[in-house]
Design goal:
Helix content: 25-40%
Number of domains: 1
Radius of gyration: 17 Å
CATH topology: tt1808, chain A
Largest sheet: 6 strands, mixed
Order of helices and strands: HEEHEEEEEEHEEEEEH
Structural class: alpha+beta
Shape: globular
CATH class: Alpha Beta
CATH architecture: Alpha-Beta Complex
């Protein structure tokens, strides 16, 4: 028998009151920070484990000077997309400009995703490409590895280097204190 943690759950409209109460409770407690909506389908993401947060903090600190040199503005987890019915929440982002009043950013120069067990990082690639995100860094904590991708039309090619930030993935891997 499979457990609920090992499977996806789809609740058809209208959601029962218990589901609505769960969503409201998550919002009230701040547990919905990484929840996303994919073309009207709600994706409930669990809060990340400590390893994830530790890597995210290190990446913010380590990539900050590179972003500054490139004239990019760093943001932590943020809403990237069209609005409340279609958005994703990358772990970090680097923008060319920042309107502090915007809730849903239409694009980013660079997006950073830290992979967690069972997450949907690679399923987000077409969405990011459609919104013209130029580069992606995908961090694999278990493997102590970072993959870099540059947008080539409607898809991403692996590059080994962030052109915009001006850093090789292997150089970044070498300075991370992997948890």
């Amino acid at each position: 028998m499979r457990t609920l943690a090992a499977m996806r759950t789809l609740v058809l409209d209208p959601p029962p009151p218990e589901v609505q109460q769960l969503l409201e409770r998550r919002k009230r407690l701040g547990l919905d920070m990484y929840d996303e909506v994919w073309e009207g389908t709600y994706h409930m993401a669990p809060m990340a484990r400590g390893r994830h947060g530790r890597l995210q903090a290190q990446l913010t600190r380590l990539l900050g000077p590179y972003a500054d040199n490139a004239g990019l503005l760093d943001v932590g987890p943020f809403n990237l997309g069209d609005g409340p019915d279609n958005f994703r929440v990358p772990d970090l982002g680097y923008l060319r400009e920042l309107d502090p009043e915007v809730l849903y950013f239409p694009t980013a120069a660079v997006v950073v995703e830290v992979v967690s067990a069972g997450d949907e990082t690679y399923e987000k690639f077409p969405f990011y490409a459609a919104r013209e995100v130029d580069e992606m860094l995908v961090v694999h904590p278990e493997e102590h590895h970072i993959r870099t991708f540059s947008r080539a039309g409607g898809h991403y090619d692996g590059t080994g280097r962030s052109i915009l930030l001006g850093i090789d993935a292997t150089d970044l891997e070498a300075v991370i204190r992997w948890p």
